[in-house]
Design a protein that fits this description.
Helix content: over 70%
Radius of gyration: 27 Å
Structural class: mainly alpha
Number of helices: 24
Largest sheet: none
């Protein structure tokens, strides 16, 4: 569905909403919270309150409060930058939402998945997918505020992806909805995100007006946590405008507040912003110091161990969903069998019906068991996938070289794009590779990033391959490109490393 078609559909839906009761899931969630927004309780006490709320809801079998309790704890652990805890509560809430089929709940889950994808994994495309799916559920739930906020977030994601026409169009859709249904806190976030969008388009004067409005609203709302985010964005804006001194002052004030409150998710963005401002200003020593703080803090709150633990939780959650589906099927079949036992002597037709149902039950039960065995086998096969992948890639390279008329179009694409966005070497492969590499060379990758802060992730990959003495052919096979492209890329890497003509690239990497 193109944008204009979507706009017509949404306009029709909003018009029809005017004559019906409005859903407002966010308001209901806020009003049910045992900890009010102006509470002065510490985060530890807030978590205790919410854990008690959740335990009581489960004990009373109150499904709605059970779901709310999981969302409260999701946010608590997000503020504590405990992303493993965040994932645990999100997966539990997702299972509950699927059991009920409540569109508001399903939208709430997708919005939080998008938040994780954008802020933790820095994956705007994945976040955009979640937001677009959430918009459908917001519409099904007839929740205008949910629709407005989701449209606004879709606009923000398109802005990050530099697709400004889509971004501006979605913002125009979102703004009138939010002006009608949003409160000051929600409008502050809207203005902040629109400021970012304008900044991407280098419309700095307009952007500054909107981010200042967001900051003012956050102060009126007495919401310092959001205020720190908006101030950080203003620092970035001033840095882009060349007002480096003002930007650095704002960042440093944010650092003090974020350190005092232990808001590490805000602090890590402050460090990166200060580093960039100093770099643009030409003060490279200060830029280096803050860049070091950025990488250290980033790895500590969302490093490889955290991401692997979250991936493990996600795998277990999928298995749990399969088991739940099997349990439901078995429950349905048991009910069918009980019903047939009661009517088996009623008539011959009842006997025939019983035979048919039992036959269906046998087939379904067998299929369910086969699916269960297949799922377990797939999990086991995952561990062998990486071991076999290099062999398969080499075979693919040989096949391609034998067919000169089917050369890959990707061989003409910039190598750094091949390294960064390669479908053969997946993100999961790369994460596993770095873990094994770190076990052999502890601290090596962090030292490389500090020594060469301008090195892209693509350059980092090639650097590590050379360190492991991989041949050009082996590196090409892993990345799915030609050996000729590897040779050209080595030249580009030399330039990024600022090596003199006399210095050998391989010797430099080996001695590093």
């Amino acid at each position: 569905m193109n944008f204009f078609h979507r706009m017509l559909v949404i306009a029709f839906i909003l018009k029809s909403f005017s004559s019906h009761a409005q859903q407002n899931f966010k308001k209901e969630l806020r009003e049910a919270n045992p900890v009010k927004s102006n509470s002065i309780l510490s985060i530890e006490k807030v978590i205790t309150k919410h854990e008690e709320y959740l335990a009581k809801a489960i004990g009373e079998k109150n499904v709605t409060r059970h779901f709310y309790g999981l969302l409260y704890l999701f946010l608590d652990h997000y503020k504590m930058h405990d992303y493993v805890g965040v994932s645990k509560y999100l997966f539990q809430a997702e299972n509950l939402s699927k059991q009920t089929g409540n569109p508001n709940w399903q939208a709430a889950i997708l919005l939080r998945k998008a938040l994780m994808a954008d802020n933790i994994n820095n994956d705007s495309k994945e976040a955009l997918k979640h937001y677009e799916m959430a918009l459908k559920f917001c519409t099904d739930a007839r929740d205008s505020l949910c629709m407005g906020e989701t449209l606004e977030q879709i606009s923000a994601m398109y802005g990050q992806l530099e697709e400004y026409e889509h971004a501006n169009n979605y913002y125009k859709l979102a703004l009138p909805i939010l002006e009608k249904f949003a409160d000051r806190q929600e409008m502050a976030l809207t203005y902040n995100n629109y400021s970012n969008l304008l900044c991407y388009q280098k419309k700095y004067s307009e952007a500054r007006q909107y981010v200042d409005s967001a900051i003012s609203l956050a102060r009126l709302n007495k919401d310092p946590y959001k205020e720190m985010m908006y101030l950080n964005n203003k620092g970035s804006l001033l840095s882009d405008m060349g007002q480096y001194g003002q930007a650095i002052d704002i960042y440093k004030n944010c650092v003090l507040v974020n350190k005092r409150n232990d808001w590490l998710d805000r602090l890590v963005k402050n460090y990166l912003g200060i580093s960039e401002a100093y770099k643009k200003k030409g003060e490279y020593d200060s830029a280096y110091n803050y860049l070091y703080d950025f990488y250290w803090l980033k790895d500590s709150i969302a490093g490889r161990d955290v991401k692997l633990t979250i991936a493990d939780l996600e795998t277990k959650n999928k298995i749990q969903q399969k088991e739940f589906d099997l349990k439901n099927k078995q429950h349905d079949l048991d009910q069918a069998r009980s019903y047939l036992r009661e009517w088996i002597w009623a008539a011959v037709t009842g006997v025939i019906l019983l035979i048919a149902i039992v036959g269906i039950w046998i087939i379904q039960n067998r299929q369910a068991k086969l699916e269960n065995i297949k799922d377990k086998k797939n999990l086991a096969d995952l561990t062998r996938l990486l071991l076999n992948k290099n062999t398969r890639l080499i075979q693919l390279e040989e096949q391609l070289s034998q067919n000169n008329e089917k050369k890959s179009v990707h061989e003409t694409v910039d190598f750094e794009m091949n390294l960064y966005n390669q479908s053969i070497l997946t993100h999961e492969d790369w994460a596993s590779f770095k873990i094994y590499f770190e076990n052999v060379y502890p601290g090596y990758i962090n030292r490389l990033r500090i020594t060469h802060p301008d090195l892209t992730e693509a350059g980092e990959r090639l650097f590590l391959f050379i360190k492991l003495s991989l041949t050009n052919k082996e590196a090409a096979a892993i990345l799915g490109i030609s050996t000729e492209t590897i040779k050209k890329t080595r030249t580009r890497l030399r330039k990024r490393l600022n090596l003199s003509e006399e210095m050998n690239l391989d010797e430099y990497v080996k001695k590093f």
